[in-house]
């Protein structure tokens, strides 16, 4: 990325030192230094303000960095999505495996720890949903393509948009059935094999 170099060049062109630019940007001198040395990247508001201060277009300021910024953002989203997905699946697994034994041992009191685990599932689900909405991905194919760091072409995207309502309902029904079957199996095993 060359945004840091361009910021430094345009700052020098206006005969401003880092402190002067920092004052105009309402940030610290260290922030300007980090941008110029590419230790961090300015957010979109800062880029807009830089464009205004330097009296140049956004294109002149960022040029080829937009694609690289999008790659970095997508990479971070993919990592977050994988993490939240794993955590949600782990919580669902714990919920399914522990529901039967806890209910048989504790009765209605088992709903307290199970409720806490269910809240964790909900939390990770909301986080995943936010990433999906931000990147406009819903169907299985869109998610898999996104997690591989790619995007669908326009024709494929339109086809997937048509599938969204049906796939969402199918996934919800399938997830409910699998959870129910697994929970009943655990309860059956606990009652008949372990005598709980």
From TrEMBL:
Residue spans crossing the bilayer: 83-102, 108-126, 169-194
GO molecular function: DNA binding
One of the Pfam families matching this protein, by short name: HTH_3
SMART domains: HTH_XRE (SM00530)
Domain of life: Bacteria
UniProt entry keywords in alphabetical sequence: DNA-binding, Membrane, Transmembrane, Transmembrane helix
UniProt-listed InterPro entries: Cro/C1-type_HTH, Lambda_DNA-bd_dom_sf
HTH cro/C1-type domain ranges (all copies): 7-61
Protein name as catalogued: Helix-turn-helix transcriptional regulator
